[in-house]
Request: fold
Amino acid sequence: MLDRVNAMSDGVVAIALTLLVLSIEVPQSHDFTNGGLIAYLVKVEYQLTVYLVSFVLIGCYWVLQNVMFHYFRHGTRVLTWLNLLFLFLLTLLPLTTQLIGTYRDEPLVMVVYGAVSIACSLSLALIWWYSNHIGMVVWPKIDPTVERTFMRRILYGACLSLVAVGVSFLNVRMSHFVFLSMPLLYLSDRQVDRHWSELVAANNGEVDGIDD
Reply:
């Protein structure tokens, strides 16, 4: 079950990333001179910026989910539904990205975008909480410190999105840079990564179960 949930998640993320780039306008004219190309890049500069922001956000959520699933030894029906909730929220990002590109100076659009980003973080936090306290699908002997650390890192993303929404009322462009700083939260987590390696070694002889 867990492998199929992972495979579906990867497929949905790949499609969401592809949809982002499709929202960038393609020029109708065939003037590919230096002036024409530069004029086109200037025209779509804002759309490219918004595309980059959303690409980074979706990438961060995929990294978080990928690390999280390393700690799971089997899947459950509830875990599958919670993951579907996360994927549903994630697929709203291409839509809200297009809204930002269309209504570029409207802070309320950034509120909607930020709300979707916060919801993605909270859905991941819900999956992690369920897996550790209700479903018990994580590997045995997981360090409580690692559990709390990873939960905090998930919630940091929600807090950063909230900050970006607040900044958008002062300067919409500046809020984009706040969102772009999110990878700094997730580039590395030595404690979580090291503990995962230790769990694999400690539970190397265990056989994954299936719980429907």
Summary: The first helix runs from residue 2 to 22. Confidence is low (pLDDT under 50) at residues 206-212.
